[in-house]
Amino acid sequence: MSHDASYKLLFSHPEMVADLLRGYVEEGWVSELDLTTLERVAGSFVSDDLRGREEDLIWRVRFRGRWLYLYLLIEFQATVDRFMAVRLLTYVGLLYQQLIRSDRPGARERLPPVLPLVLYNGEARWWACTELAGLLEESLPSGLARFQPQLRYLLLDEGRYAHHPLPAVRNLVAALFGLENSRTPVDIAQVLGRLLEWLHDPAQDSLRRAFTVWLNRVLLPRRLPELELSQTYELQEMHTMLAERVKRWTAEWKQEGLRQGIQQGIEQGIEQG
What we know:
By secondary structure, the chain is of the alpha/beta class.
């Protein structure tokens, strides 16, 4: 399973989308969303050149008595896309075309609002303009400038949350970002412990499985390639395995440090003798 596919599996759960909105979209209107109404929308939009957008996620949620659409683009490319705003302008247009073809909105209704959101976890920090206006010619006459297209997207660059502590209240996306930004077995085990607390309910079995698949196939092979992973499907088993490994590695490091200290002492004694 690719990184993109495993992330899509995670964000196919409404709990993840709700925590993303609650924890990372710092806008006053988010409190007006009825997150119990989150509903996945089919995400296959075909442009004129017949290329589909199957990998993107589209959700809708009730907002002030109507639907708000969330276009979630998950981006894992190695380099920053300078023209991301242009891409999203196209995707949002395709979404509107699809809604129009399916008779939404009705004859007396307006098009619904859309929140374009880019979730990025590349190594380099994102530097591209998040607004289309920043890519267009400057110093245009006002009479021409007002005819230019407009689009702004919300960027969530996971690397910028590397030093953010986990919140006291449950937020599954914070746990995901914490795992992504972990660099040691100790870090991973600590976040996993909190994640287990937050996903203890049997009704969350599907989401626990999604996290386990992602950890098994994506994160741990990348962060800890020396680990021999079995195809376990229990998050608790994975946490226990990591905790035992941490204890073993810590003991080995201490033993290695002791051996090095003894060896250095012998060498120093020989030199002084």
